[in-house]
């Protein structure tokens, strides 16, 4: 029945054609924003087909030229091709993460291999590459700007790295592998979302939930009402899982929820991802070997700041050596504290956050529930937007006339201090069934220039923050505040872009550089001069006490060793999967355990693993790149040291960061951009000092 229904749905999608398809019309909306209110799932497939057809014609026109290949008629022309495909893909792939449903997922399964094959038909086009090669061979003689040089290099590398120089048989194998990989990655992400959404635990006795804060109890009660049940219903969304692991006094409940969360997609259900893990890493390895690399990490890292696996491991190993003593002391201290609370057992994974929160609360007289009342979402938005105003002169105005894809989404017009339009920002804050876990920034439209025309960007930030309840507004945790700042930092990178070519705009940079603007902005979270601009008690209007801010600052480095090794464990796991030099046919859990063993602090929990839901590396863009969070952390600590010296809101420093980094996107090598801002290469010392590791 499911197959018959899918065939009917696809027939309807195809029959919709292109006549009257809003995706193929000029958008008669403010700032030509996407008309979400007019787009239905059946519009996408015919729009994708038409967009791919148009780009094929644009590419054919480049190849048909009789004039010798030059930068304008080949490189720029190729850059501009596919504009309709980008316009169709932007809302589709964003909604696939932020507001998906069965119809969109059905379209994704059909369109994903089509798009992969379409891209292959361009990057494996020998006639087209011959023209690119002609321009590339002249690069030292052409008088190109730095941005044009980058575009030329990127264009050339996109062909080479996607197999254009392969022999006939190898080229066909590459086509097969790339299509296979796109489908595997898509299915991996869909399985993870479905498995997470499928979990429900019905609790009838409130005593089982002892210790949970009122706002979480209200959310769980609302879950029960939606399920037509009495009591409380637990799910595995981050807004349930994270506070439950911190506050639930019932150790058996913590263990049960931990096991459910940490065994997702590996229990033999229809959503089991272990085979997908094997197939993805093996497909990537075969692609890398086809292209002349010994493993997939080597292939990826030639286009990263790190450059090679040796540099990645050098950073990870240095951080491990520096933070290990602190992490071991933190573990010993927490075990001693837990023992003092009557927990005479070795701490397990489901105990760590619970006793950490108790210890942190005892040590600093600080916890999420003390801070929440001062972080009401609407006030936080004003504070975060206000920070962009202080640093960059930006203003944000909600415009309800701009169509959005869900009632909870708000669209803002962003302007500069002179009132000039900068771009659009969509915000989407709360978890839903159709939204994947985590938080992210993305673009609906990149910035680009043609002549004097500056086409401004449309940016979105999507999160999974605590929802409002029947009697309380959305009150954020401190971690949610820093997450907001993080994603907003990415948004500023997109909004303030000032480049010529869309592919180089905003976050179109090396993966190990992209987290700098986002992580830099997190540094303002504990600063009193920032918090004083918005943090007021949602009921009394009282400004957040300076004593609380002092405690926030004191607690900033609580468990910093443990948290560093936790991040390192993810990075080592990522590198382990992508430095494989032979196909992997083994046990996913056993291999993961081995990969993370050197940085492990807590006992191994049988029948759990993170690889089957590690979306960053198996369905996102961080394969052989998870280390970039720590790489960028070195950069952000070093960069923030300038603001600390010159002033948190120093416009001269902010202008330098804007002009040298935010505006430049991927137009030049990021090492050069950073050095222009900083005046020197980054040093690990600032991070070690910030975390209290180095005095």
Characterization of this structure:
The chain is built from 28 helices and 9 strands. The chain has 695 residues and is mainly alpha-helical. Among the domains are: 2-165, Neurolysin, domain 3; 199-262, no CATH class; 372-556, Neurolysin, domain 3 (Orthogonal Bundle), CATH 1.10.1370.40. A hairpin with a 5-residue loop joins strand 4 (410-415) and strand 5.
List the helices and strands and how they pair.
Layout: H1 2-15, H2 44-64, H3 71-80, H4 83-98, H5 102-123, H6 126-137, H7 146-160, H8 168-198, E1 201-203, H9 214-226, E2 232-234, H10 238-247, H11 251-262, H12 274-290, H13 296-301, H14 309-340, H15 349-364, H16 368-371, H17 377-392, E3 395-398, E4 410-415, E5 421-428, E6 440-445, E7 448-450, E8 453-455, E9 458-462, H18 478-495, H19 511-522, H20 528-531, H21 546-555, H22 560-578, H23 588-596, H24 615-618, H25 628-646, H26 651-662, H27 670-678, H28 685-690
Parallel strand pairs: 5-9
Antiparallel strand pairs: 1-2, 3-4, 4-5, 6-9, 7-8
Helix pairs in contact: 2-3, 2-4, 2-5, 5-8, 6-7, 8-12, 10-15, 14-22, 18-19, 19-25, 26-27
- Strands of the widest sheet, in order across it, are 3-4-5-9-6
Average pLDDT confidence is 95
What portion of the residues fall into strands of 2 or more residues? 5-15%
Straight-line distance between termini: 66 Å
Low-confidence stretches: 1-16
CATH class bucket of the domain at 372-556: Mainly Alpha
In the CATH hierarchy, the architecture of the domain at 372-556 is: Orthogonal Bundle
Helical content band: 55-70%
- Rounded to an integer in angstroms, the radius of gyration calculated over CA atoms is 25 Å
Secondary structure category: mainly alpha
Count of helix runs: 28
Largest sheet: 5 strands, mixed
CATH level-3 fold name of the domain at 372-556? Neurolysin, domain 3
Shape: globular
Number of strands: 9
